[in-house]
Amino acid sequence: MSPSPRGKRMITIVSVLVGLSVISTFLRLIARVKRRAGFGVDDYLCVASTLLMLGMLVELILWCVIGGNGYHESTLDTTTLQTFYKIFLANQFTYFVLTPAVKISIVCFYRRIFTTPTFMRVTFWLNCLMAAWASAIFLACALQCRPLRAFWDKTVEGDCFDGRRYIIVNQSFNVVMEFIILGCPVPMIWSLHRSWREKLALNGVFALGGFVCFASIYRIVVLFYIDPTDTTWTIYEATLWTHVEPSVGLLVSCLPIIRGLFPRFWSMTSSQGTRIQLGPTGTDRSGRGDFGPSASSEGVWSVQESRELGNLKDITVQTEIELEYDSARVDVDTQPLNRHAPSSIQ
């Protein structure tokens, strides 16, 4: 069976988004290596999420080619319908692992930047909550029909709960988490003693996740379009946004890191000649410079004008000088630089 026009459209759109996600992940890893920064949990989760996205793309292609996604249910035979629901189930399992992996990756990235004790505690429990929810929803997916075969084989007598309601509940949780993750860095950034333009520029780096929030909300809306009597046709919008949401989330999670590969572009686009640089200040919590492996991992130390930056360890506002450190050097005498670097950085 060849894909329907709807199926071809979905495959094209999702292939482009997944391709961009793969490229952004590759550039992310290059940025880490270039900055001599070690790979963290956020990077490993990003790679795992990329592989899961590729898996979902394969599922989508099979779903449209042999599963009848995009056709009216009345035009499909029993074997094709069973294949449709088998792939539908596999797609649910993949999605329920992928979305929390992307979210936890973003939060782990935050934890490499903002290292205040309160923020670290809050984000730790936030990650625990998302991991626990992911485990619960994955288990619920496996138990949505008893026996599970009844999900795809309608000739088998079984007991299944309302699958659409269950997916909507999970998606509602995703929306709440998206907004929490989007808002996490805002208080940290606005506590900086900077101009409002510079604060807006920093917030803009993270606010790109706002589209992911929109995608999550819109996915709830289109879930109500599914008609159980013609699922293969009415699931089109839900299928598309099920793939758009995590792929855009993965892409957005990489942008703050890969932007370091194009410093001239960002310096030209920043306002009033001030560049907003994501990277470690090279200081420990006592304010002493540390360019060794114990420093944070973005790999750039910025010499800043003598203005208060607040308590953030890994975000600086860079105006003139940028020094790259060698991760092989553990002890560096920073006294000559202290005339330019604020002692209040923690």
Automatic annotation (TrEMBL):
Residue intervals passing through the bilayer: 12-31, 43-68, 88-110, 122-143, 173-192, 204-226, 246-262
Protein's cellular compartments: Membrane
Membrane topology according to the record: Multi-pass membrane protein
GO CC field: membrane
Record-linked PANTHER family: INTEGRAL MEMBRANE PROTEIN (AFU_ORTHOLOGUE AFUA_8G05510) (PTHR33048:SF163), PTH11-LIKE INTEGRAL MEMBRANE PROTEIN (AFU_ORTHOLOGUE AFUA_5G11245) (PTHR33048)
Annotated family: Belongs to the SAT4 family.
Protein name: Rhodopsin domain-containing protein
Species of the source: Aspergillus tanneri
